[in-house]
């Protein structure tokens, strides 16, 4: 069994500290947990009396290879996206020394008064990201991945969390809805997609905001990342502001030469890829609770039902899905 990287007495912790001191040239460097919920990776803030803060990424190689993170990081940096600077690395051991971008993410500093400015700056980075040509070996947000994510909703949220068993007709409603969502996603113009481009993964920084948590990037639907930015997992905005921000993103993307369709089609695409994401996230939150012992995320489940309510009734082809959610999910949560 691998050492727990969060255990200060483990051999992994000792190796991490020794490497960080050598890599930084600071023998008195002390490491303190900087963030959690990064899969098998952990992040540690290094401080000493003589040095500015640094961040150590610890990615135990037997659990999570650091090379995909580095490959995508270098791809984004090459396209002008603001990403954390790598100060030192030991790929075989799974240690990186990174610049410290501070403790506050964009989620911590956003409010109703400054949101326009912060989102404009975030879109600056997003447009650069989406303009990067996708490497031939970049995974695709293909039918298999889109479908697998959607089934997290019925497997983990409906089944495991709510204990709901659908009859054959209701299962057919889900499958028909999933088919429509997958088909419309695949029909969108395809670009580099971060897959979690939201305020918690953006850091206010010089030349920023800096983009984090990009290692799962794929080639996929152009509306996915802007929708993720404005319909965040942890912070909701009035629907009219979201629609205005999406419209502004569309105008800027078109001006930048990105392959956005006409506005009406783009807004429809954003709606539908949003439904795919909202269903997936409900499934992920249930899985985090039941499989990983992280129950706090389910407190945000009502937010995603509100997101679905705002969209499903705009699209007649998804009315059966709306009815299924009204019949089963709302009563179960109430």
Describe the structure.
It is a single chain. The protein has about 325 residues and is an alpha+beta fold. It has two domains: about 10-100, Phosphorylase Kinase, domain 1; about 105-334, Aminoglycoside 3'-phosphotransferase, Chain: A, domain 2. It is about 50% helix and about 15% strand. The model is unreliable at about 1-5 (pLDDT under 50).
Q: What distinguishing features does this structure have?
A:
about 325 residues, alpha+beta, Phosphorylase Kinase, domain 1, Aminoglycoside 3'-phosphotransferase, Chain: A, domain 2, 5-stranded antiparallel beta sheet, 11 helices, about 15% strand, globular, disordered N terminus
Question: How many domains make up the 3D coordinates?
Answer: 2
Distance between the termini: 41 Å
Identify the strand order in the major beta sheet: 1-2-3-5-4
| The CATH architecture of the largest domain | Alpha-Beta Complex
Write out the CATH superfamily name of the largest domain: Aminoglycoside phosphotransferase (APH), C-terminal lobe
Estimated structural class? alpha+beta
> What is the CATH C level class of the largest domain, in words?
Alpha Beta
Strand proportion, as a percent range, falls in 5-15%
Q: Number of helix segments?
A: 11
Count of distinct strands: 9
Radius of gyration: 21 Å
- CATH topology call of the largest domain: Aminoglycoside 3'-phosphotransferase, Chain: A, domain 2
Extract low-pLDDT stretches: 1-6
Overall shape: it is globular
**Could you give a short account of the major beta sheet?**
5 strands, antiparallel
Q: Give the ordered list of helices and strands.
A: HEEEHEEHHHHEEEEHHHHH
Helix fraction, binned, reads 40-55%
Mean pLDDT: 93
């Amino acid at each position: 069994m691998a050492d727990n990287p969060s255990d200060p007495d483990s051999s992994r912790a000792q190796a991490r500290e020794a490497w960080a001191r050598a890599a930084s040239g600071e023998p008195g460097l002390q490491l303190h947990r900087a963030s959690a919920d990064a899969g098998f990776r952990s992040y540690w803030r290094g401080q000493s009396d003589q040095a500015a803060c640094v961040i150590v990424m610890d990615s135990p190689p037997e659990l999570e290879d650091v090379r995909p993170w580095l490959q995508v990081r270098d791809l984004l940096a090459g396209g002008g996206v603001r990403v954390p600077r790598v100060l030192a690395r030991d790929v075989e051991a799974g240690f990186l020394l990174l610049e410290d971008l501070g403790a506050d993410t964009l989620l911590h500093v956003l409010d109703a008064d400054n949101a326009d400015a912060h989102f404009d700056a975030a879109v600056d980075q997003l447009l650069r990201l989406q303009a990067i040509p996708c490497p031939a070996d970049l995974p695709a947000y293909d039918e298999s991945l889109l479908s697998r994510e959607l089934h997290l909703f019925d497997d983990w949220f409906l089944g495991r969390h709510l204990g709901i068993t659908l009859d054959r007709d209701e299962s057919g409603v889900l499958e028909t809805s999933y088919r429509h969502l997958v088909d419309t996603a695949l029909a969108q113009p395809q670009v580099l997609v971060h897959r979690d481009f939201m305020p918690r993964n953006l850091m206010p920084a010089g030349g920023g905001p800096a983009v984090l948590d990009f290692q799962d990037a794929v080639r996929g639907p152009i509306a996915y990342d802007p929708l993720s930015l404005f319909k965040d997992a942890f912070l909701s905005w009035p629907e009219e502001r979201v629609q205005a921000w999406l419209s502004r993103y569309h105008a800027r993307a078109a001006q930048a030469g990105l392959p956005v369709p006409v506005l009406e089609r783009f807004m429809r695409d954003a709606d539908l890829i949003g439904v795919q994401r909202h269903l997936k996230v409900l499934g992920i939150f249930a899985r985090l609770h039941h499989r990983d012992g992280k129950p706090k995320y389910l407190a945000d489940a009502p937010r995603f039902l509100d997101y679905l309510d705002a969209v499903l009734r705009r699209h007649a082809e998804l009315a059966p899905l709306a009815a299924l959610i009204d019949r089963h999910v709302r009563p179960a949560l109430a």
